[in-house]
Specification:
This protein has 17 helices and no strands. It has two domains: 215 residues, Hypothetical protein af1432 (Orthogonal Bundle), CATH 1.10.3210; 81 residues, no CATH class. The protein has 310 residues and is mostly helical. The longest helix is centred in the middle third of the chain and has 22 residues. α1 packs across α13, α8 packs across α13 and α9 crosses α10.
Length: 310
Amino acid sequence: MNWKQCREDLLGNETFELPPEFKLPMLPQAVSEFNRASNDEDVTIDQLALILETDSGLTIEVLKMVNSSIYGFRSKISSVKQAINMLGISRTKTSVLTMAVKQAMSGCQSKLINLKHFWAANMERAIFAKEIATLLGADVEIAYAASMLQDFMLPVLTSSMFEQYTDFVDQNEKDRIILTAYEQKKLGWDHAVAAAHITHKWEFPDDIICSLYLHHKGLAILMDPTYAKTPAAAVALSALLPDAMQQSPQGFKQLIQLQSIWKSFDLLAVAQQVEEQFYEMGGDRVHHLTLKRRVEKYQKDVENEAAICT
C-alpha cells in the first residue's frame, strides 16, 4: 500500500487554510521533535527516549498507556526507553501523536460538546475500529489511532464557529442530515478534510492522514478496491457509531444491515468485545451508552414488534 501516493491523490497540491477565527492549539515541542527524529533511520532508542523525557506529562502518559490492558504486557514497564523497546518506534510514534493531539484539544471549551462524553465516544469508536481492522486483516494500531483522532477538530471548530454548528444541530433534529454534507454546503470543506490537512502539516504518517480524510465515507468504502481492506475502512465504519452530535444519523442502522452482507461481521459479538475493553480501559460506566446496550435494545425492540404482529 503506497500511502504517500494515496495522501497526494486525496489532498492534491492545493493549500488548505482554516478561517481566521479558528485557533489551532500547538502540539508540545517534545512531540514535534520526537516526530521528526523518529523519521531518521539512524536515530537510536536512547535518543528518542531522551526527547520524550523532556516532557514529564508526556512521559507519564506513555507509561500509563504502555501498561494499560490494551497491550497486555505481563511485566510493568517503568521507563520510556523500555516502552519504546516493547512497542517499537513506529507504534510509539503513532501513540505519542495520538496522545498529544488529545492533550492539546482537551483544553478547548465548546458549548456544543461535552469533552468527557466526546472522548468516551472516541475511545469506543477506536476500540471498535481495532476489532473491525482485525476482521479485515488490516493494521489495528493505525485503525485505533486514526479512529481516536477522527473528530479531534470538532471541539475547536464548534467553539470557533459556534453559530454554524448550532445551525447544524437545529437542522439535524428535523432533517437528519450528515455533518460532512452540511459542512461542505455551508463552509466549502468539512472536518474530515480539515483534519487530514492539519495532520499533514504536523507531519503525521500518511496512513493516518488518509484514514482521517476518508472517515465519513461510510459503507461505500468497503466497495473501494484501494481502501476496502485497510485501516481506513475500519475507521470509516467506526464513524457510523452514534455520537452526541449525530454526525451520521443512519449509521447505526447501516451497521445492522451490514451483518446481512458481511457474514464475518456480527455486530453484537463485536459490541460485546468493545464494551469489555472499553470498561477495562476506564471507560465511563455511568453516562456513556455503549454500542452493546444499543444493539441489545434494538434486538429487544425487534422481538417485541414481532410478538405484537403475531
